[in-house]
Amino acid sequence: MPNNAPVQERVFLVVVDETEELRVALRYAARRAQHTGGRVALLYVIEPTELQHWGAVESLMKEERREEAEALLQKLAAEVTEIAGTMPIIYIREGRRRDELLALIDEEKSISILVLAASTGSEGPGPLITAVTGKLAARLRIPVTIVPGGLTDDEIDALA
Fold it and tell me: How confident is the model at residue 54 (pLDDT cuts 50, 70, 90)?
């Protein structure tokens, strides 16, 4: 009996931060999306500051962080589009990165795979990788792909 259900495209979620290995995760996800007919989703989380008792200052800082997030996401979206051939899905949230990541994965059923790149530093793979491979692993409904953070573009292209 043929299955006439529509095929759901794969959505590769990349968490945008200020780390060097972001570029590795981004390229890997874009190349996988290109080769599988999928899409990339970018999540940027604006984390709260410690100045919450200074309302006006906090509000101004939040607006500046949002503008910085939007500018960075525009740049990254252009890179993804060039590689994958499709515009990425953009998510901007406010809160704690780990909490917002888990909430987004729970809410957006279209997200199929979380792509993270491991830190190349001596302090460990990074806080998100540590979280999603530890106690939080049981809360995830999707697989996690961890890409070595030191891969070159050619190495990524050969893998993806």
Answer: low
pTM of the model as a whole = 0.89
Is 83:1 a contact under the CB 8 Å cutoff?
A: no
Band of pLDDT at residue 56, cut at 50, 70 and 90: confident
> β-strand 113-118 against 144-148: which pairing, if any?
parallel
Q: Which two tokens stand for residue 120?
A: 């190349």
Domain 11-159 classification at class level = alpha beta
Q: What is the DSSP string of the chain?
A: ----SPPPPPEEEEEE-S-TTHHHHHHHHHHHHHHHT-EEEEEEEE---S-TTSHHHHHHHHHHHHHHHHHHHHHHHHHHHHHHSSPPEEEEEES-HHHHHHHHHHH-TT--EEEEEE--STT-S-HHHHHHHTGGGGG-SS-EEEEETT--HHHHHHH-
Residue 33 pLDDT exceeds 80? yes
Q: Structural domain boundaries of the chain?
A: 11-159
Which whole-number Å values give the CA distances from 65 to 45, 74, 96, in the listed order?
10, 14, 14
